[in-house]
Write a structure and sequence with these properties.
Serine Threonine Protein Phosphatase 5, Tetratricopeptide repeat, Rossmann fold, five-stranded parallel sheet, three-stranded antiparallel sheet, 15 helices, nucleus
């Protein structure tokens, strides 16, 4: 049964976290969920514990204060504090730690995110949940943390659940202000550059940090780039991009430097024994053209979109004797390919699809890469856009995917690539950015010794 408490006592929790008051906090956390937020700033106790270290005086915080802050953060996390809740400035607690330069606190938040996502992985939380109208806040890749209603009757506070990206108005909110669910950083594990799409007003609102969209609107918006929607959309090839019918960027030419390096690392010159290549997701053909520079003996391309297949034919890929085109979804074509070619092994495999979730990437490397990759010289890579909207999400999902790959017997070497500044004009023809960082982590995976 939830413990009843007053707005004043919950405010004490927010203040105690900011003060790192370790005498008061344990008792408060026995009575309150840590997932409440100030209605003005939307900062949770976890935000406050880190933000209070901001250097407002010439002297930095003492070592004792930093130790108390670390203990406070650990205590809040142990009691169920959500790692990726956004405040009004669109920052997670980890974002604040990174901005203030507290690397060890930032790493604590990254580790908390990794633990959360690995638990979701273990319980199947990354699968799309079929929800009725009353459960629309439970978006893909989420798990709802029960708050036992503890904040439901507290005027002037914000109650947070853990539905990733869900933003909904509470049916108990009154004119005095109260109970709304706070948004969280987008933790969609989008290995496949799943850029969202929706009518213009919805798309613009979703990109707005102060968005007030309902959960159902967010879910409808997210659904428009799922594979069935994407495959039925009309694509537009421009000199610099490939766009779907809603102007979501399927691929852009700024990726060329990344793809050129990827191809050279996956199929290096020293690999003279197996120069067979598989690429899943042709798009603009950037990585396939880069692979061709390495003169593969056989080049297999899996592509599902009819417009891209048409372009492949127009550009002569079907006429190349060493090229095999697998037409259709890779989930359908690769099993047939493996049955028809039981002895084939591949020197290089690359994966870069659109409109698919992390589950599909994980299925691909756990079921197909392990069966097709040459155990001696084979290398596997993929476009790493997991959580690329903000640094902490990118850092979390870098570790998550590395753990999952290791579980399949694959070691991962990350090559950091400094990107030329992605200026605004690079994105002016598309709905929204799908990569928002200065550095790209390029994965090269091989079977461990």
């Amino acid at each position: 049964m939830a413990t009843q408490h007053t707005p004043e006592s919950a405010q004490v929790l927010l203040l105690a976290a900011a003060d790192h008051n370790l005498h008061v906090l344990p008792n408060l956390l026995r009575q309150h969920t840590p997932n409440v937020a100030d209605p003005e700033t939307l900062r949770t106790p976890l935000h406050n514990a880190i933000a209070s270290l901001e250097k407002v005086e010439p002297q930095p915080p003492s070592a004792e204060k930093l130790k108390d802050a670390e203990t406070t953060i650990r205590l809040l996390l142990e009691n169920g504090a959500i790692w990726n809740t956004l405040d009004k400035e669109h920052e997670t607690p980890g974002c604040i730690a990174y901005r203030l330069g507290y690397e060890h606190l930032y790493e604590m938040m990254v580790d908390a995110g990794v633990r959360c996502e690995m638990i979701l992985n273990a319980i199947g939380g990354w699968e799309q949940i079929d929800s009725d109208a009353e459960e629309e806040g439970e978006a893909e890749g989420t798990v709802v943390v029960e708050n036992d209603g503890e904040a439901d009757d507290i005027p002037g506070l914000v109650s947070i659940d853990s539905s990733i990206g869900s933003i909904k108005n509470s049916d108990k909110m009154d004119e005095d202000g109260v109970i709304v669910d706070a948004p969280e950083a987008d933790s969609e594990k989008n290995a496949t550059k799943e850029k969202k799409s929706h009518p213009e007003d919805i798309a613009a609102e979703i990109s707005n940090p102060d968005s007030t969209l309902s959960a159902s609107e967010v879910l409808e918006y997210n659904a428009t780039t799922e594979t069935p929607s994407y495959l039925s959309s009309t694509l537009t090839f421009t000199p610099h991009s490939l766009l779907d019918s809603n102007r979501n960027a399927v691929m852009m030419d700024w990726e060329s430097s990344v793809m050129d390096l990827t191809a050279s690392l996956l199929l290096p010159e020293e690999n003279t024994t197996n120069r067979t290549v598989l690429n899943v997701g042709f798009g603009m053909g950037i990585v396939d053209k880069a692979f061709e520079k390495g003169k593969p003996t056989r080049h297999i391309i899996a592509e599902a979109h009819p417009d891209v297949l048409k372009k492949l034919r127009e550009d002569g890929w079907y006429d190349m004797p060493h090229v095999t085109i697998l037409e259709g979804k890779w989930q359908d074509t690769l099993p047939i390919f493996m049955l028809e070619n039981p002895d084939v092994t591949l020197g290089a495999i690359y994966f870069d699809t659109f409109g698919e979730s992390y589950d599909q990437l994980k299925q691909f490397f756990s079921e197909y890469v392990v069966g097709l990759l040459d155990p001696e010289v084979g290398r596997f890579g993929f476009f790493h856009g997991l959580g690329a909207d903000r640094r902490i999400c990118y850092d979390v999902y870098t570790k998550v995917v590395e753990f999952d790959l290791l579980e399949c017997g694959l070691d991962t070497n990350w090559v950091e690539v400094d990107l030329p500044e992605l200026k605004t004009e690079k994105w002016e023809d598309v709905k929204r950015k799908y990569f928002n960082l200065d550095t790209y982590r390029l994965p090269i995976c091989t079977f461990g010794a």
